[in-house]
Amino acid sequence: MNAPDAPAARRIAVVIPCYKVRRHILAVIEAIGPEVQRIYVVDDRCPDGSGDLVESQCRDPRVRVLRHESNQGVGGAVMTGYAEAIAEGCAVAVKIDGDGQMDPRLLPLFVQPILDGRADYTKGNRFYDLARIQRMPAARLIGNAGLSFLSKLSTGYWNLFDPTNGYTAIDARVAAQLPMERISRRYFFETDLLFRLNIARAAVIDVPMDAVYADEESNLKIGKIFGEFLAKHVRNFCKRIFYSYFLRDMSAASLELVFGAALIGFGLGFGSWKWLESIHTGIATPAGTVMLAALPVIVGLQFLLAFVSFDVASVPTRPIAPYLSIPARWRRPN
What is the CATH number of domain 8-240? Predict the structure, then answer.
């Protein structure tokens, strides 16, 4: 029996990274609807043998089990699935976790904006319905809120919330342009992918969804990875600003950032020097000197606020997929 046929331009693939999801993986696959033509189960060196379980008990003809010789993290598993989807000519690749937290019945909501040409990438937002947020564990709620704000800064997608949400869909033409070998392989994957999409000026939208929290165990410990995430957010923020406002383009916002940072740096430096000098000599600093330190800081803050306003307004909204094609290196020989 063959998998359901569909026009190549509308073939949908699902990528399921598998690591310690043996209890839920079969139910997740069973819930995936007929609109999907291919399901890639990526066994990321799962200690529970998820791939073996699927191969022995799953009879869905759409399923293919892909295996890693060593654990590569969720990002590595998703990249493997993306590569197969692109090579097999799928139009959209949807990533769903294998732990049962993501309802496969919501998949059409993620895919349709891409097929309609309204987005290059869609992602879930568990914070859309305020009434349902109360069911989210408090620690996860607070941690995700903090990470969401950092992600806005580093990715440039100020219109998105819940950026660490792993329920996503991407146009294959856009996925084929990504530097997959440079994208973070582990828990920073979702945010790092958004950073790469912003550099490419891809249009990304949120899809409201509800998450299920039952007996699954999350491998992500916010307290342990917050420092690592913070360092990576700072790195991506600096890269994004340099790429977007100095390397690829220069605008009034570039000048606002430079002058704002310079004025604040001068004001704080000069003010600190005079303050320490006053402490050392015991002589009060004249009002004119205080103003000479305070005024650059005030003006610099105005410049930086203008820059942030420009950055918020420049969130990509026009899909780039219609102007792209799959590079020849992705095409699998017949």
Answer: 3.90.550.10
